[in-house]
Amino acid sequence: AATAQCGRFIHEEIPMSQPKTQKNDASVDKFLAGIKDDQKRTDCLAVFELMKKLTGEPAVMWGKEKVGFGTFHYRGKTSEGDWFHVGFSPRKLDLVLYLHCELEKQAALLEKLGKHKIGKSCLYIKKFEDIHVPTLKKLIKKACDSPAIAGATID
């Protein structure tokens, strides 16, 4: 942004925004145990074990409803911060898996995955049993080994 001063413009630095969701010390086990829907809790536990095994990283709460594994630093056009390589969150309609590997570029794997929808870095599934687990493992490993967010650089 610029401000006018006596007909001249002076450049002002605008700080990058930080993500609202931050890593914290809340208990992952307590969060998972508190999921009321039996199917969603069972699915979350399956994803939890899969991500824990594949990443070798401890699970950490991010905000109140996201479980993440590993961290990386990113810098985008309007934001910068630390984020997790892979994670998940039980939502009302779907179980959301956060896989930072530019999912829109993973068409070959997504075709084999089973019932799902995608967002930018989000994979939405209704039931874990609808997913082809070997394919999901490949997507998780891809996000861990080389995280990518469209329009951002990874440090």
Continuous helix count: 4
Please outline the major beta sheet.
Answer: 7 strands, antiparallel
First-to-last CA distance = 26 Å
What is the average of the pLDDT values? Answer: 83
| Alpha-beta classification | alpha+beta
Radius of gyration computed on alpha carbons = 18 Å
Describe the structure in brief.
The chain has 155 residues and is α+β, with helices and mostly antiparallel strands. Helices cover 28% and strands 28% of the residues. The protein has a seven-stranded antiparallel β-sheet with strand order 3-4-5-8-9-11-10, with helices on one face. Strands 7-6-12 form a three-stranded antiparallel β-sheet, with no helix packed on it. It has a two-stranded antiparallel sheet with strand order 1-2.
Explain what this protein looks like in three dimensions.
It is built from four helices and twelve strands, in the order βββααββββββαββαβ. With 155 residues, the chain is α+β, with helices and mostly antiparallel strands. A seven-stranded antiparallel sheet has the order 3-4-5-8-9-11-10, with helices on one face. Strands 7-6-12 form a three-stranded antiparallel sheet, with no helix packed on it. Strands 1-2 form a two-stranded antiparallel sheet. A hairpin with a 2-residue loop joins strand 1 and strand 2 (8-11). Helix 3 (107-113) packs antiparallel against helix 4 (133-145). The chain is globular, with a radius of gyration of 18 Å. The two termini are 26 Å apart. The model is unreliable at 1-16 (pLDDT under 50).
